[in-house]
Design goal:
- The protein has about 110 residues and is an alpha+beta fold.
- The protein has one domain: Aspartate Aminotransferase, domain 1, CATH 3.90.1150.200.
- About 40% of the residues lie in helices and about 25% in strands.
- It is built from four helices and six strands, in the order ααββββαββα.
- It has a six-stranded antiparallel sheet.
- A hairpin with a 4-residue loop joins strand 5 and strand 6.
- Helix 2 packs across helix 4.
- The protein is globular and about 35 Å long.
């Protein structure tokens, strides 16, 4: 399965929301590659970088790092989080500024 196939199977409004998240991630990491890993879309840049997924009542962004979530705890105060997940509304993508911070934190962490 490809990321496009995954997204095609996701109902609206989650599909549009995740397509926007995907676009925002790629804007921060041009040339990144994609795959389905553990059943969810994963963006790779020198290894797995971040992932995202759709669920019945929410969408999730996976920074693939508890440290990234902890380091941005103030910015994430309005979201449901756990060690590895940031949940957001099915009809409202994470803000571009927040995705930028999450991706940049992951890139820095991987260096």
């Amino acid at each position: 399965m490809t990321v496009d196939e995954y997204l095609a199977a996701v109902p609206e409004p989650q599909r549009t929301t995740l397509q926007e998240v995907r676009k925002r991630i790629h804007a921060e990491v041009p040339g990144a590659t994609e795959s389905i890993s553990y059943g969810i879309p994963t963006i790779h840049h020198e290894g797995p970088l971040v992932a995202f997924a759709s669920f019945q009542k929410h969408c999730s962004f996976f920074p693939l790092s508890a440290a990234t979530i902890a380091g941005l705890s103030e910015e994430l105060a309005g979201y449901e989080t756990s060690k590895g997940t940031i949940q957001f509304a099915i009809d409202q993508p994470l803000p571009a500024v927040l995705i930028r911070k999450l991706v940049k934190a992951r890139l820095k962490e991987k260096k």
